[in-house]
Amino acid sequence: MDYLPYEVTAAVTWEDRAAHRIMELEGLNYSFKAIHQREDYSLRPSGRVTVAYKEQGKEKYAIDYGDNTGVKGQYSTEKAAEVNLKTKLIPEYIRRSRNIFPDYDTYSEKLRIEILQSVFRGWTSDKTAKLIRDEDWFLAAIEFLNDADYEAATAPNSTTRGIATRMEALANALQEEGEM
Fold it and tell me: Of 71, 90, 99, 98, whose CA–CA distance to 20 is shortest?
């Protein structure tokens, strides 16, 4: 049986576009065993099955995009992951982004999306946040990449290149904001 992915809903609002950006950067942990263990494919009405996994260095299990409420052996679907991201997680992380950046809604769409994906992954850069609030875009971009996680992710033979990709996306958006 050929795999046919479910149809992704068109990104109409900027919140949808933010969700799609997070979906691009994240990834889901698929279990092909789960797909094949059920003849009726009832766990798979809208795409591949995802399986909860223990994140490195953490006690909780992740299921879907950024949802750390999973339990060992729990299954979900791509469609359920997208719905959870759009209806529960994106609104929560918009609120968190606005708490860190009071002028968040005045930033360009690209910058808001990249800030949102950085807050989603666990914003920890107070110095960069201050520079953004002060609208010192170029210095904020430099400061944001002045980080041990970024250095580790860009090191030769790094297995965490995705971290660098995310961080570079925000740094580029900050530079573009300064050019506007």
Answer: 90
